[in-house]
Amino acid sequence: MANKINIWQITENELIPINKTMKEGGRTEVNDLENWIRKTPEILGEELLIIGEQIDTKNGPLDFLAIDKNGNLVIIELKRDKVPREALGQAIDYASEIASWSFQEIDAACRNFTRMYLEDYIRNNFPNSNLKWEDISINQFQRILFVGTSIDESLLRMIEWLSEMFGVSINFITFAYGKNINGDEYIATTSIISDELEKERRQKQQRKIPIYDVNERLRNFPKNIGFLFHELDEKIKTISDKIYFKVNKGNSVTYYSPDRLFIHVIFQKQGLKLHLFTTGEEINGVENFDYARGGSKWGKILFKNADELEKIILVVKRSHELIVDAIKNNEKTSWFSETEENDDEGLEES
């Protein structure tokens, strides 16, 4: 099993062991340890944000769902005593299900837990990160963290084998609780896979993230759709040299102001569907809609032929003005749309 962590109090003449069970210290693993992880996930040894708790899955509730600053999701399973080997299959089941989640499902889980949009939550809690939002690929990779006081030897062997032989991002964090003679409490954690090795493997994973090319996306559509997009793109970028776009997994592109997403362009065979930030204002040619995740701050318009370009650009300019004002006023704006094929109301994944 994983090595036990011994905690000692240093006095002038001797070392006094202070290991105690949480029960002996008047603590409960169910309430206290969960609360510590919830409020201070750094005790798990890395920069993580908890974005969900007791997440419903097909195989039962997942203890904690976290995200790192690269957008990788982390399944955290807390075991109150020795972690059995059966826990591995359950955790892999959780990870395989979470891997299929869309941005919208992750964003919804985050808002349900934090009352904040995922983008805002990441921006607010990783303020010193050099990563830009457009560089973050949400849910490209998943990781598993077990947390417990000890681990079944066969499970330990399987975790090390999966990590060493196949580079699976899986680890076990063991914790020890201590209370000294003065009543001061301590908690210590360590991992069976070193932080250095885990960091190196995550960096290798990040280098494998695909970079999507807009022209590859457009190959699936009639040539006139590509022509319309490039004409539109050229005009949008004349509005401000700070505007940039991000090519998404699906057949869509999102434009940023640069601080917030304000235009979502979806490629369709009949034209380009634009979803724009309107803050509810009536804009000529734009149909506002009340959407559960976006409220009534967004609208849509279809761009079908080149003759409509000037009208579309006027709409985009107004949307850009509104997003800039909204940010200055600290107004919530983030919103990402969903994929629904053959549904005129459906929105493409971002």
Description:
The chain has 350 residues and is α+β, with helices and mostly antiparallel strands. The protein has 2 domains: 8-207, Trna Endonuclease, Chain: A, domain 1 (3-Layer(aba) Sandwich); 214-328, Aspartate Aminotransferase, domain 1 (Alpha-Beta Complex), CATH 3.90.1150. It is built from 9 helices and 14 strands. It has helices spanning 29-39, 86-98, 103-114, 118-125, 153-166, 195-207, 214-218, 223-239, 309-328; strands at 8-10, 15-17, 49-57, 60-67, 73-78, 142-148, 170-179, 185-191, 244-247, 252-256, 261-268, 271-277, 287-291, 295-303. Strands 3-4-5-6-7-8 form a 6-stranded mixed beta sheet, with helices on both faces. Strands 9-10-11-12-14-13 form a 6-stranded antiparallel beta sheet. Helix 8 packs across helix 9 (309-328). The chain is elongated and about 85 Å long. The chain starts with 7 loop residues before the first strand and ends in a 22-residue tail after the last helix. Residues 336-350 have low confidence and may be disordered.
